[in-house]
Write a structure and sequence with these properties.
Shape: globular
Number of strands: 12
Structural class: alpha/beta
Strand order of the largest sheet: 1-2-3-4-5-6-7
CATH architecture: 4-Layer Sandwich
Distance between the termini: 54 Å
Helix content: 10-25%
Number of domains: 1
CATH topology: Metallo-beta-lactamase, Chain A
Order of helices and strands: EEEEHEHHEEEEEEHHEHH
Oligomer: single chain
Strand content: 15-25%
CATH superfamily: Ribonuclease Z/Hydroxyacylglutathione hydrolase-like
Number of helices: 7
């Protein structure tokens, strides 16, 4: 695993982490550490295989017992699967996930149900309401921003008002490069994002509403959970203009999307 410094003013730091290769055939993903003074949070901590290399990297910057929050944007395994290990090994940390997904978290690990945790899950879990919220961190805080159906029901993104970084989850994601790489030519980068966003984002209505809401943010960087980052406000707005016009998800459905006649024929149903 390697790290990339996204922001550092001496007091406030943002660091991104990514696996050097995908030898385990998993989807390459980025994890994020935000430090303000003596408190820190992890955003989208990753899958179970990510936990050990990520914690080894984190201790280069801050002790594990200073991690106040472990935050997840949505329910996918590459986001939340390692969360039980955070509860087991970092006793004072609190999990923050969309409220909609609270009851699904115990399915990730039997530690929740076999008494291996010192506290009930509910005592160490904060559910983000649909409208988002603000979570104090050091002398600053993290803002949870609604990004519903992009691509998950109840999906959230996270904005750091000090670094002006928008941690955008799957929005803006690509399978080219990692958070250490910067998009320098937006038009050339579109093919790296096109197929994913057409398939995984639920509808143009959702992308338009999201783009309109976040356009008012002062964003210096937009850093997705997969692939390259967008390193300027101009590039951020180029992305907003593109995604607001993209037909995707249910926009693409028609009667042929539900046609299974060939399968029935193979089963000799007809």
């Amino acid at each position: 695993m390697q790290h990339h410094i996204l922001y550092d003013d001496g007091h406030h730091k943002c660091i991104a982490f990514s696996m050097i290769d995908d030898a385990d055939e998993s989807v390459p993903s980025n994890q994020f550490l935000v430090i303000d003074g003596n408190e820190a949070c992890i955003i989208d901590p990753g899958g179970d295989l990510t936990f050990t290399p990520l914690t080894l990297q984190i201790t280069k910057f801050i002790p594990m017992n200073k991690i106040k929050y472990v935050i997840g944007s949505h329910q996918d395994p590459d986001i939340l699967a390692s969360m039980p290990r955070w509860l087991l090994h970092v006793e004072n940390t609190t999990l923050i996930i969309p409220k909609l997904w609270e009851r699904f978290l115990p399915h990730y690990n039997s530690a929740f149900t076999k008494g291996r945790l010192h506290h009930k899950l509910s005592e160490r879990l904060i559910g983000i309401p649909d409208e988002g919220d603000y979570y104090p961190l050091g002398e600053s805080g993290i803002v949870a921003i609604p990004a519903h159906f992009l691509h998950s029901v109840g999906n959230m993104q996270f904005y750091d008002p000090i670094s002006k970084i928008l941690f955008s989850g799957d929005m803006g994601a690509s399978l080219v490069g990692d958070s250490g790489d910067v998009v320098t030519d937006f038009e050339a980068h579109i093919p790296n994002m096109y197929g994913f966003h057409r398939r995984y984002m639920v509808s143009n209505k959702a992308t338009q509403l999201w783009a309109k809401s976040v356009a008012k943010l002062d964003v210096a960087k937009m850093v997705p959970q997969h692939g390259k980052r967008f390193d300027s406000n101009k590039m951020f707005h180029q992305f907003l203009n593109w995604i607001a016009k993209l037909e995707c998800g249910v926009d693409l459905l028609n009667e042929y999307s539900y046609n299974f006649d060939k399968q029935l024929a193979k089963a000799e149903v007809f």
